[in-house]
Amino acid sequence: MRPLFVTGLSIASALGAGLERTFSALREGRSGLRQNDFEPFPHPTWIGRVEGLESAPLSGEFARFDCRNNRLAQLALAQDGFEQAVARARERHGAARIAVLLGTTTSGILETELAYRRGAEVESLLAARDYAATHGMFSLTEFVRRRLALEGPAATVSNACASSAKVFAQAQRLIEAGICDAAVVGGVDSLCLTTLYGFRSLELLSESPCRPCDERRDGISIGEAGGFALLEKAPRAERGAVALLGYGESSDGYHMSSPHPEGAGALLAMSDALARAGAEPQEVDYVNLHGTGTPANDRAEDAALHAVFGDSTPASSTKGWTGHTLGAAGIVEAAVSVLCLERGFRPGSLNTERVDPALRARVALESEQRPLERVLSNSFGFGGNNCSLLFGRAA
Amino acid sequence: MMKVHLHGVGVAGSGLEGWAACREVLAARAPWSGQALRVPAPAILPAAERRRCNAASRLALAAAEDALAGCEWPLAELATVFTSADGDGAVTHALCESFAAPEPDVSPTQFHNSVHNAPAGYWGIATKSKRPSTSIAADQDSFAAGLFEAAVQATLDRGPVLLVAFDLPLPHPLALMRPRSHDFAAALLLSGEPRGRPLASLALRLEPGAAPSALPAGLGALADNPAARALPLLSALAHGGTAEIRLGAVGARQLAVRCER
């Protein structure tokens, strides 16, 4: 496929707001995880929480979109010159030629959950809410589209934890079909009770900071994050020449909440991303794993990884830094991949002490400063969705 | 402008049990009863999943199965696009209620059914399909956004794409925010290249302004169900000939479709 250049990029997660804070934390091996202090929750767990959202309401014409998820979107939009990059793209292409495709899994559900906790007040609290602008799945995309004054095709993609990776594939298709010249992609997911209690009910929540691929790994740490990328056909001087070179999407067709044990769908997604880019496995310098830290995910992903790459390509999960940001994991790890390519840095697996000897691929524990040409990023989700994105320097 | 071919149509909703019955109503040969549909658990699912599967998935899969009777492709070869404004409100409600209890006890099945792509997940299990699946939401315009995505995929990849649009009433008190009376789901099997004898061809384009086409006469009670925005297209199919319809916004523009049968 024709490469799509990343001409704008922004991020906000538990590592802080902006690419610089994100990269410093990665380089210094500083995790953003902390013991849960979000909402009263009777089980010990660690979370990746974004500071300051409680005191940053949306105002003016955007007040109707106010909810934790859109506050996080606003924070991410304001980082790294992203809005300015989009404004310039709008001048180049016209507002109608730029798509807005964003992933989320729980949107603004938190405020609805908290309303239910208020007993008899629930009816008046809910009746006063603008459902479409806050609770609804499209709330995020409509907020961002209006905030950026864009008029191109817009949709929320909600494929669980693969959501904000799949939007890259969707953007590539719209641009390839000649419908758009550029796309704003990304996603936002914020802390809420549904995911805390939900992952706990599946016994997938760790009591300690998550330890992807560790022999003692016992589940995920939930994080929240928002991030955006601007994708265009031609490189821009403002950013380097890092581009999306390939994508692969597949389904497991196996189980609602467990991955295919041999990683059959994951293998297809990785192979397809390489094929679309015309790249061989040995040309990939680093794989940013989905690497959630659950026993089943890391085992299945390892099986697929080993089948494609053998035991030579270094791979690691960065969820020990950010936590599993669910619907935002795709964009967070895409941003990490782009940063790694731009700055010649290959992260290890934070919190992982001893790699599970049953895993056969090469899981890197230590970070390393070295030039990278191609990085593959994996995102998998409930319902058996898999998406792999290949980033690199385009000729 | 994109052109795709339509190979199958499926419907499930209040007073509209299957495309054959829906066609009679749309052609004014039968009245719309508005009677709630009792959707059986999809026969296509393994028994364990049939027990676990939620109302939204049952409704969506009923429309999908209806569209695929006589499908010329193996089901596992279909890429899928599912689209819904609100997913499964009953599951959202059940989870929110449990958080309000002094000692919340959340069912793992409810949790995995709460993801917007639950119907897509069940579809994948039923067909053992490894093909990509995308789950879309675009509020009132979810049908237009889903059809647009399915058409882009069909045009670029040439292969068959199954589109399923569904929305259901939400229970109280969620209904205070979003009132809705009736279930409705529609499924369309599209391809970029014709195979056999397509039912119709659809030419899609985005154009400025203009409201979506009105719902067919007698079906106005479905207007608060975003999936029912498919009905003007289904009406054009029921009547035959050539029709121009607008199905809702995709971004700031309307999705206009020229349907030729």
What is this structure, in a nutshell?
With 395 residues, chain A is α/β, with parallel strands linked by helices.
Features:
heterodimer; A: 395 residues; Peroxisomal Thiolase, Chain A, domain 1; 12-stranded mixed β-sheet; 3-stranded mixed β-sheet; 17 strands; 22% strand; globular; B: 261 residues; alpha+beta; 9-stranded mixed β-sheet; 9 helices; 25% strand
How would you describe what is shown here?
The complex is a heterodimer of chains A (395) and B (261). Chain A has 395 residues and is an alpha/beta fold. Chain A contains 12 helices and 17 strands. In chain A, strands 1, 2, 5, 6, 7, 9, 10, 11, 12, 14, 16 and 17 form a 12-stranded mixed β-sheet that branches. In chain A, strands 3-4-8 form a 3-stranded mixed β-sheet. Chain A has a two-stranded antiparallel ribbon with strand order 13-15. Chain B contains 9 helices and 9 strands. In chain B, strands 1, 2, 3, 4, 5, 6, 7, 8 and 9 form a 9-stranded mixed β-sheet that branches. Helix content of chain B is 32%, strand content 25%. Chain B is globular. Classes of the chains: A alpha/beta (395), B alpha+beta (261). Strand 6 of chain A pairs antiparallel with strand 4 of chain B.
